[in-house]
Amino acid sequence: MNESADTTPAASSAPAADPATTAPRAAMARKEWQVLRDLVPYLRPFAGRILFALGLVILGKLTNLAVPLALKRLVDALGVQAAPLALTLPVALLLAYGASRVATTLLTELRQIVFARVMARVSRKVTLEVFRHLHALSLRFHLARRTGGVARDIERGGSAISDLLDWTIYTILPTLFEVVLVTAFLVWMYDWGFAAIAILTLIAYAAYTFRITEWRTKYYRASVEADTKANECAVDSLLNYETVKYFGNEEHEARRYDASLMRMEEAQVMSRKTLGVLNLGQALVISVGVTAMMWRAAAGVVAGTMSIGDLVLVNAVLLQLSAPLNLLGMMYREVKQAFTNLERLFGLLEEPQDVRDRDGAVDLRPAPPEIRFEAVRFGYDPRREILKGIDFSVPSGGTVAVVGHSGSGKSTLARLLYRFYDIDDGAISIRAPGDDARDIRDVTQASLRGAIAIVPQDTVLFNDTIFYNILYGRPDATREEVEDAARAAHIHERILGFPDGYATEVGERGLKLSGGEKQRVAIARALLKNPAILIFDEATSALDSQSEKAIQAELDRIAQGRTTVVIAHRLSTVMNADEILVMDQGEIVERGRHAELLARDGHYAAMWRLQQQERSDAAIEASIVV
Length: 626
Known about the structure:
Blueprint: H1 19-22, H2 25-43, H3 47-78, H4 89-136, H5 139-144, H6 147-189, H7 192-239, H8 241-246, H9 250-303, H10 308-349, E1 370-378, E2 387-394, E3 399-404, H11 410-417, E4 425-431, E5 438-439, H12 445-450, E6 452-455, H13 466-471, H14 479-488, H15 492-496, H16 515-529, E7 533-537, H17 545-558, E8 563-568, E9 579-584, E10 587-592, H18 594-600, H19 603-625
Parallel strand pairs: 3-8, 3-9, 6-7, 7-8
Antiparallel strand pairs: 1-2, 1-4, 4-5, 9-10
């Protein structure tokens, strides 16, 4: 039976030049052995179960060989002249024949039952480790990644683990064992002639199958790339649905997506054409081998050296052997495809973790610490420095505000404090009351980030309920604590006004809520965390003036006793800060309290006058409209 369908996914790509296919085959082999090496540690805990299941498979192959042997004896027995045992012997052989077939199926299914846990558990563990590793990577990786592509790599890699284990351990290895077993059986029962024909057929079949499958594999490798790109395109477009609508670019997005689908279509056509070539060649090799074997067996019957039962036995053995041989092409291709998918999955694990805990890193005590930036230099790209020797400190329990025009580097300070990145030069130190100052690189990331809560300018919520999104600040909090945090953020009454209350679904990225509602949920989430350090990054930017005043008073209250960094554009929100830093092009150009900065009549004073004028113009415009 030849392969009737190709198992490569519909997502295929055009037969364009693929760098992976031009690599030397030795390099590809090393890659596959590396994948196996990476997979082995996950299999070790299940070594006993794996060996037991493999033993069941081998036992199944042995019982499978008993089927044609019982059939031969049955045929020979039915041809015997009437004798006292003539009526009982076929009955026993019939029972043996049936028992052999049942035993073969039983052992095969038992293997599946025993090994099912291994495949599922290993796949789960590897996928979970990749997921955890992705969360451990720095923000640098996540700003460059494509969500759709990474999701597809994880999905394909997880299923590839089961495929690889199933095909290699319980299909290819048992098939090779069966070939050796059948060859030895033919030599034992008859002569080397049958074994020679079987071996030559196998060699010709394997050589042809591996050669053609290797040729076809390049289309699958390209299809994986095209499928990933198409998924990236689709996910990116759907996530930015509103932007697509704003600019009326539905057809543009459809054309981009269709370009990927066209490449998949071409590769799928080529894959099916080459499948026909593979199937035809396989059928030809098997047919020649079976014909040669049957010719020799028939000649033996005519010569009187073999019985009719022997002819039936040879035919049955060949049929049993040809079935796995016909699957050999599919086995090899599936294994190659599994390796390709696992290479991408383990490739994610090999992504370097830029930000790591140092050896001997200690936990930060949960108390409002002093924070100090000393000659800090940093750039997302080495060719463009963002922060140029920043020096400032935030006293324990104090509040420092950072203001400046867009692009001045204000939000970068918060990212560095969180250790989303490590600085290029200088030091960021933190000192809990009663402790010595420590570089934040000497503090565990978990304790550092556990001590900080941030209300970001661009609030993104999980596609879940309002309750879940607030609870995310501290997953072990009670419902009362969640509601208290919502009250403090002045959103509790608004939530109760929704038909589903706290069970209201917020939609993808929180798009079902208004900007102000999302901002208040983010504030409630930060308050629920009860942090030692608070960071407000344009925390009231999405609120109207009246709401801003109400929440600003609440923010000032909750900041008491906490070390607070306020990053703001609206200067009216930072008037009460202990110190205000004015940034421009990555440098601190002014610092002081609100009144002091106004008196200097510098950058801060100019910004203040401009914002006051804008507010005055807005008030006049509003009065005219009324």
